[in-house]
Design a protein that fits this description.
Length: 105
C-alpha cells in the first residue's frame, strides 16, 4: 500500500490534506482526507454530507467502510503512518524552499 497522490490544504478547516491510497492489488482509493482538530489527526474516507431527517443534524455518509472494526482500525493506522511520512516530506520541501529564498545570490 502507498500514497499515490498527496496535496496539502491551506486554511482553517479541519481538512489538512487530500490523498489517494494505492493498494498492492492495483485498486486506488481516491479523495481520502487527513483531518486535524484539538491536537488529534485521523483519516476520513470520501463521503457525502446529508441531513438526518429525524434530528436535523448534518451527518456524513462514508463511501468506504469495513464489516470488521478491527480491520478498519488497522487499515486507518497503516494509512495514517504513510500520510505522516508524506507530511514530513512536504514540511522538508517547505523548509528547503524557505531556506533557498533566504540566500541573497
Amino acid at each position: 500500500m502507498k500514497i499515490s497522490y498527496f496535496k496539502m490544504i491551506e486554511g482553517n478547516s479541519a481538512v489538512k490534506a487530500r490523498f489517494n491510497i494505492e493498494l498492492s492489488m492495483g485498486l486506488i482509493l481516491r479523495e481520502y482526507s487527513l483531518m486535524e482538530a484539538n491536537g488529534n489527526r485521523w483519516i476520513s474516507p470520501p463521503s457525502r454530507k446529508y441531513e438526518d431527517k429525524e434530528s436535523g443534524e448534518t451527518k456524513y455518509f462514508a463511501y468506504v467502510i469495513a464489516k470488521d472494526k478491527n480491520v478498519y482500525a488497522n487499515f486507518n493506522k497503516q494509512v495514517l503512518e504513510l500520510v505522516e511520512k508524506e507530511l514530513e516530506k512536504a514540511n522538508a520541501n517547505e523548509t528547503q524552499a524557505v531556506s533557498d529564498d533566504a540566500i541573497p545570490f
